[in-house]
Amino acid sequence: MFDKRHYVPVLxxxxxxxxxxxxxTPTIKRGLTPLIEVAPIDWDFDNGTYKKTxxxxxxxxxxxxxxxxxxxxxxxxxxxxxxxxxRMENGQHPLEFTxxxxxxxxxxxxxxxSYERDVEYNKEVALAHQIxxxxxxxxxxxxxxxxxxxxxxxLLHSLQVAPxxxxxxxxNNHVDPNSRTRTTLLLxxxxxxxxxxxxxxxxxxxGTAIPKDLSEIGADNVGEIERTEWLIWKKLIQSNHLxxxxxxxxxxxxxxxxxxxxPRLIRMSASIRYTGEDKFIMFRGRDLRKYGYGxxxxxxxxxxxxxxxxxxxxxxxxxxxxxxxxxxxTSGSPQTWRRTxxxxxxxxxxxxxxxxxxx
Length: 359
Known about the structure:
The chain has helices spanning 15-23, 26-30, 54-58, 61-68, 94-104, 119-132, 148-159, 180-192, 228-238, 288-291, 295-305, 316-325, 334-355, and strands at residues 7-12, 35-37, 43-44, 49-50, 75-78, 109-113, 136-140, 166-174, 202-208, 221-226, 247-250, 269-276, 279-287. The protein is α/β, with parallel strands linked by helices. The protein is globular and about 55 Å long.
């Protein structure tokens, strides 16, 4: 069972997130258990097909995870974005391949599933538990609560596990800041009425207020987005209305849905996402194609001048911001800044959890 100050970030497994995890100190890593979502295979809009085979897509997964994580603590692994019918060239299920890759590198991986997964996927989840004895993770979404006991009992039966061997994730997905009070009240009732409430190994509540894009923040502006998922979680655990407190989780600095737009049609702006107290601070520039990557020098300078800047020693991400603000090295790319913002965010939340009052 997790310590009550533990953290479960849901991370889209792309290079920015991979590098961010790699930059964390061992102390910060011990305070979290990442839920890794294997990214969907990129689509080739020119040729109307996938850019890679599933073998090519998963090639090196274990090696990258070993380099990024490198800890004895377990991780969660979810292949929800991989097509159900995809198989490796040798006929192997992608989940089986992924878990074997991790197992061969002594990485403790707990597979994630949900009610909507197909029979073959869940066979692999059950087999992984039989081999590793690490249990499983079940992800609940809003629709599951209409018939929760039936769905959970069906999953427990098919996976051949007891609730004590299951980490239960309540996935709140995108949280509307305008519905914070309503969502808090709804979650209070949902959590208190979960089947086998006291028996689950862990109960994790995750979500994010980060929108799909930053269009609501104008060019050359600094905007703020409330960390609604964090405020809701704090309210829930401090209210004493729950009969069991959930572990905190979020989506890092990303929206829950994968980005799948045609890159030929996207006009990406320079932007840096920076986590502050109860809010995300968005530093936004202009169109990268027209105004260039040099805009990041000025955006970084705005961050280190901001009262919420944590200082260069806080995290690897904060050191990078400081260096760019002082024009040491290159200005970076959107991928670099996803790494930087995620490194700061993960460190910030682990520190937040160590300071928040918990009953």
